[in-house]
């Protein structure tokens, strides 16, 4: 059911080279060549849970980088970082999901996504590999899924070893809806 199409993120402190011309873009091209049956997901781990987002949402994958705190920002906004001259808002996905803060902030990695013309860095514990998954294996959120995950999840895939929760990037970054609900 799951086919690995990329290797695990390598060393910390280096740009992982998964931008438009790197392995992420190649995976999308490979998907088109296969006929588009499978969907590719960039996987990552937060607090021991495996998550994924569609590879087409990912602009870049970065190893640990310096994040400057923004005064008066919500706690889940870790700050801002400079990515090749562009200011990128860094979102601590752990805190957004209601999980405790990471003990070692220096070892965290970033997945850069774009929403409405703005770049956002999703801070995660570890970036995994790109998995090509058959859409037939996609399931709606089960009632037993942690409520903290359910709010920002599109659904799940049951893999051999573990459960992959597919995050809704747009929902994760939608602060207007969160403000209206409060």
UniProtKB/TrEMBL annotation:
Q: Which PROSITE patterns match?
A: CHEW
Q: Name one GO cellular component term.
A: cytosol
Out of the domains of life, which is the source? Answer: Bacteria
Task: Give the GO biological process terms.
Answer: chemotaxis; signal transduction
Region of interest (Disordered), ranges? 1-30
Question: Which Pfam family is an annotated match for this chain, by its short name?
Answer: CheW
Annotated CheW-like domain residues:
38-178
Q: What is this protein's record name?
A: Chemotaxis protein CheW
**From which source organism is this entry?**
Rhodovibrio salinarum
